[in-house]
Specification:
It is a single chain. This protein is α/β, with parallel strands linked by helices. The strands form two sheets. Strands 3, 4, 5, 6, 7, 8, 9, 10 and 11 form a nine-stranded mixed sheet that branches. A two-stranded antiparallel sheet has the order 1-2. Helix 7 links the parallel strand 7 and strand 8. The termini are far apart.
């Protein structure tokens, strides 16, 4: 396999189309079709079958593509490591994370990052949900930052810091009087079993906060009266602050929002509920020094946010 050949075949797989792949790699469609035909003749078997207008890898094509991807990854790793060894502070990488998390930590990272690596291009992609699933299907994303209760064993992960998931309510809510001081909790602790009426705004269960909220409410024997399910945590926090409903969110999210009337945060759980913010990258991928520095800055920003 030659690198140009590998790039062509991987683009065909990515777009499942000769015309779209040809447009991406700036060659004519007939030239790319001829390339694929010659390659299949050389191998002695078709690499793709056509279903409608979509190209689907055959079994032989799937195996060929697996080897092609390994070679492409090795080339990418060599290029990154070579730049590191030569001490050239240049390159580019992409980071994906939820929008509100991005607002909390990215401004504090980038200012210091560019002081050290002004020639490194960072692309920030914000995904409101399913960050992990999106990233695992893409080779174009280098680093993912998101919260969970435990790391994913199939990925390389670094913990950036822990924080509480808190219950948020308006200070005018009568339940606010029931918060008590409890060892190990930085916020007043509230027994969720005291909630007998009112509405909730919840994240769906495929989001970490939504999953934890469902577990907390179930453990308290509460069937929530859900006013709204939303992936937008900013919306749920603001609705709770306004007194419309109760909501759960990471405490740093609440601190990052400006309110006309600041809401109250309560520790919940036994005695509190925590999540860990992780930086994830794919196993076997070389991590350049500038990405490592980005991760270290994220740890510092997270620590400062929690200590506020």
């Amino acid at each position: 396999m030659y690198l140009k050949e590998i790039n062509y075949i991987l683009k065909i797989q990515q777009y499942a189309s000769i015309s779209k792949a040809a447009e991406e790699i700036f060659i004519s469609q007939p030239a790319l079709s001829k390339f694929l035909k010659n390659l299949e003749q050389e191998i002695g078997a078709p690499l793709f079958s056509r279903i409608g207008n979509t190209l689907i890898p055959t079994y032989v094509g799937t195996r060929y593509l697996e080897y092609a991807r390994k070679i492409a990854d090795l080339q990418d790793n060599w290029n990154l490591e070579c730049v590191d060894m030569l001490g050239e502070a240049r390159g580019k990488f992409s980071v994906t994370l939820p929008p509100l998390r991005s607002a909390c930590i990215i401004p504090g990272i980038l200012e210091k990052f560019y002081q050290r690596y002004p020639q490194v291009q960072v692309t920030i992609t914000e995904e409101s949900s399913l960050v992990k699933k999106h990233w695992l299907s893409s080779k174009e994303i280098d680093l993912v930052i998101y919260s969970d209760t435990e790391p994913q064993l199939s990925l390389i992960s670094e913990a950036l810091g822990k924080e509480e998931v808190v219950l948020i309510m308006s200070p005018d809510n009568p339940l606010a009087e029931n918060g008590i001081t409890r060892e190990g909790c930085r916020h007043p602790w509230l027994d969720l079993r005291l909630i007998t009426q009112g509405y909730f705004v919840l994240n769906p269960p495929d989001q970490t906060t939504g999953r934890l909220a469902a577990q907390l409410l179930d453990a308290a024997g509460i069937t929530p009266n859900v006013l709204l399910h939303t992936r937008n945590t900013d919306v749920s926090i603001r609705m709770a602050a306004a007194g419309t409903a109760l909501a759960f969110a990471p405490e740093s999210y609440v601190r990052n929002i400006n309110f006309e009337k600041k809401p109250l945060c309560f520790s919940v759980g036994n005695p509190k509920t925590e999540i860990t913010l992780y930086a994830f990258y794919q196993n076997g991928r070389y991590l350049p020094s500038y990405v490592k520095h980005f991760i270290e800055l994220a740890k510092s920003v997270m620590a400062a946010a929690i200590d506020r």
